[in-house]
C-alpha cells in the first residue's frame, strides 16, 4: 500500500513539474504586440474587401447556377424572383442596411494604407454636386474609402452633404454582390453605391433634394489600363457626359484627385497597338470593365506577390466647385465651355498639391 501511495505521489510531483515547465514555456513565447494585432486587423480588412469585389459576385453566380441542378433549386428560383422584383432599386438609391457601413473594419481598412481626405473649399448643402474622382487606379481605393465608408470623416468635413459613388451598372446584376453594394445606400447621412447611369444619377440630383454629391470616376475602366506607379494619365479629353448632366440639373462640378492611387499595384501595361492591348480594349467595350494584368503583395509577406494592394498613403484632395447653371438642353459649345473650366480647375488642384503628397515639381498630369 505504501509503495502504491509513494508511486502516486511521485507521478503527481512529476505531473506538476511538467505542468510548471509547460506554463513557463508558454509564458516565454513572445505575445503579439498591439502594433502586430493592428497590422493583422488592417490586412484582414483589406483582404475581405478585395475578395468581395473580385469574387463575391462570380462565385455566388456559379453557386446559384449549380443549385439549379440539385434538389436545392428553389433557392435559385426564389433569389431570381427577388432580383426581378428588386430590379430597379439600384437606380433609386439602394436600400437601408446601416450596420455594414458602421463596421469598425472600415477604420482598419483606412489605416492600412492609410487613406486621408483633404478639404480645400466648403460645399454648400443648398446645392447638388458632381464630384469627378481621379485617377481610377486598379480598384478605386481612394474613392471607395472616402465616399462610401465614412471612415475618413467626409460628413464632418462637409456637413449637410450626402456623398454617393457610382460604379458599373453590371455590378448590380451579380447575385449577392448587388446587395453588398447597395447596403450602404440611403443611410442617414446617405452614403452608398449606385449605377453610373443617367437614370440613377438623375434621380439623385433631381428627386433627392439638395446636398447630394455624386462621385463619378470619370476615366472609368479604360483608364485602369494605363495605371502604373509614377505615371499620371487621365482619360478625360472626350469624357463630357458628366458635364452635360451637371448642366441639365444645375449641379456644381467638383474636381478631386487621389494622390497615391496608382502606387497600390504593379501592372503589366501593354503598348498601344499591341494585340494584347487590342484584346483588353475589345473586352472592355463588350463587358464594361478592363481585364488588367496586375499584382500586389501577398498575404504572408510584403515581399511575396498576390492580389492585396501595397500599403501606400492615399490622399484625396477635394477641390473648388465650378459653378454650373441649369440648362435643360445645353448646346455642345456650352458643354465644351464648362468641360474646359473643369479641366483647368483639376489641373490647378493637381499642381497646387502634387509636391505635398509624394510627387515632384516636374511631375505633370497627362490628359488624353
- Would you count the extended β strands for me? 12
The percent range for strand residues is 5-15%
Structural class: alpha/beta
Q: Note the main sheet.
A: 7 strands, mixed
Summarize the structure.
The chain is α/β, with parallel strands linked by helices. It has helices at 2-28, 34-68, 73-85, 98-101, 105-112, 141-149, 154-157, 177-182, 198-206, 220-224, 241-249, 275-287, 332-353; strands at 115-119, 129-134, 162-167, 192-195, 212-217, 233-234, 252-259, 266-267, 294-297, 305-306, 314-318, 366-367. Helices cover 45% and strands 14% of the residues.
Outline the structure in words:
The chain contains 13 helices and twelve strands. The strands form three sheets. The chain has a seven-stranded mixed beta sheet with strand order 1-11-7-2-5-3-4, sandwiched between helices. The chain has a three-stranded antiparallel beta sheet with strand order 8-9-10, with no helix packed on it. Strands 6-12 form a two-stranded parallel ribbon. Helix 2 crosses helix 3. It is globular and about 90 Å long. The N and C termini lie far apart (96 Å). About 3% of the residues have low confidence.
Describe the structure using short key phrases.
alpha/beta, 13 helices, globular, single chain, seven-stranded mixed β-sheet, 45% helix, 368 residues, three-stranded antiparallel β-sheet
